[in-house]
Amino acid sequence: MGNRSNYNRGIWGWALYDWANSAFATTVMAGFFPLFFKQYWASDIPASESTFYLGLSNAVASLVIVILAPLLGAIADSSGRRKRFLLLFALLGICTVSGFYFIAKGEWQIALMLYVLSAIGFSGSIVFYDSLITKITTATQIDKVSALGYALGYLGGGILFSLNVAMTLWPETFGLADSAEAVKVSFIMVACWWALFSIPLILWVHEPTKGSQPGIFKAMGKGVKQLWDTFGKIRQLRVVLYFLIGYWCYIDAVDTVVRMAVDYGLALGFPSESLIIALLITQFIGFPSAVVFGHLGTRFGPKIGIYIAIGVYVLIILWASQMQSVTEFYGLAIGIGLVQGGIQSLSRSLYARIIPSDKSGEFFGFYNMMGKFAAVLGPLMVGAVSLATGDPRLSILSLLILFALGFWFLSRVDISEGEAMAKRL
Predict the structure, then answer these.
(1) CA 297 to chain centre
(2) For 195-238, what is each residue's pLDDT tens digit?
């Protein structure tokens, strides 16, 4: 019974880290930082310039993780220090987010520097967080556990973001001078939330230790060798390769829908207040829906669940191309919330099934690298069609190509073959 209790605590400790870091994803990345950067820190420079610098900063942060993720994962595998690396990156994110509070108006260069570091901390910690899933659960429960993490992430991020939005709308109610102070306090709250809810992972998640752990430099050497060996074995990992290509295609389309939704709504003339409400709707719908998809994956298999999610996204794209009212935009937000967490959680659990458990850090480094490359081709396609036709409704339809490609490559993934291959490597 004691072992069972520790096992359950390990799962909850792991899942609560999603609750912890999602505060950064919602309040900072998706919510306040882009807006506050343009209207406060960079208010003295032209809007086109601030947009360029913000986009460049996002690209730099993503590129750093793309380059480092597989290598860091390999190093963590060779040293048995996934949890330690996770906490190191989380600490980087927490400290830099706290620094936002002290940045004065007009100091946009400092704001961007801290933002890049915080984004690296956030994304870097996710590499090791994802890889720990193979250490805290079994193959039969992995779909539910993965879904639990995403579900708590949607709920936790949504709760804090709701409070932060209320603080900016009615600052005097919270004893704050104005909306600017409310946003700065929100950044401090994100750091505290992230730190506080990382404690269960620190206390309850116990990574199996390797006999004698090598020093950091020796671990780096072993990590580089392990990474090179994996590249050499890529022909033996056909199932993993098919999945990663398919995942890149459909998650690119998913991320594009998420990132372009607000811009699309603005292009159709919808008020910004309505778009914020839609974002909150997606967060709270995503909580129960991710749990449901976890049970769906356990009963029918993760591929079936991903197929269903892709089908719903196709309907969402078709609906969005004909949308006329804000009410329909809310319906769109509900539809996205129903499947967004599901397709993310089942993709993670399917991937965890077909990779070698003792190399999970390295393989999830590749997985997260593909995730960082996502939302590159999709926005380019949307932008190119919009530029060529001048019609945002037609541009959104181009994403159907990515969903179709993702569906086809996923259909080539034989989970049983992948699981057998993973055991042999």
Answers:
(1) 20
(2) 999 999 999 998 876 555 556 666 666 666 766 776 666 566 78
31: part of which helix (H) or strand (E)? Answer: none
Q: How far apart are CA 144 and CA 302, in angstroms?
A: 10
φ, ψ of residue 141 to 5 degrees: the values are: -110, 0
Per-residue confidence at 400, pLDDT binned at 50, 70, 90?
Answer: very high
Structure tokens at 292: 């449901």
Tokens for 126, please give them.
């996710």
Separation between Cα atoms, residue 128 and residue 360, nearest integer Å:
9
Contact 337, 257 (CB under 8 A): no
49 phi/psi in degrees, rounded to 5: -70, -45
* 1-231 and 233-425 share one fold: yes
Buried b / exposed e across 277-294, counting CB within 10 Å, b at 16+? bbbbbbbbbbbebbbebb
In one-letter notation, the amino acid at residue 192 is C
What is the CATH number that goes with domain 1-231? 1.20.1250.20
Dig out the tokens for 290 from the structure.
């991710």
Choose the CATH number for 233-425 among 2.60.220.30, 1.20.1250.20, 3.30.428.10, 2.40.33.20: 1.20.1250.20
Q: Which of 52, 29, 53, 35 is nearest to 258 (CA)?
A: 29
